[in-house]
Amino acid sequence: MSRRVSMPAADDLFRPTSPAGRPGTGEPKPVEHKSVEPRAEAAVRAVPDEPEADVDGTDARGRGGSARRPSGRVRHDEKMTVYVTSDELLDLEHARLSLRRAHGLAVDRGRLVREAVAMVLEDFEAHGQDSALVRRLTQE
Question: How far apart are CA 51 and CA 66, in angstroms?
Fold first, then answer.
């Protein structure tokens, strides 16, 4: 008799989060359970399906979209780890608390960072070489 413990496989632990599985990834459709009360399930997306166009129909990148906007408070599918110094983290936390105290805005650090990134990228797309991002990166 084997002394090894039987562990569940990855397929048993992880399930697809979209109603129909992801096409082309080989993920199976989730098993549908019949319930007494039907419920409407709305898909939450971090990125809109179709970007809104500007007056001329193109965005700053010429791709037919709108200005860059942060995703706000929605479920996010992607993750990125950023390392900051303790002083940068304290500055970020100070800004978060100041927003709450002075403006009544209760935002988390992730939302604050997404807003800041959206602002910097929008400035970069609008001003290119003259943007604050290029100026700061060329000063190093």
Answer: 6
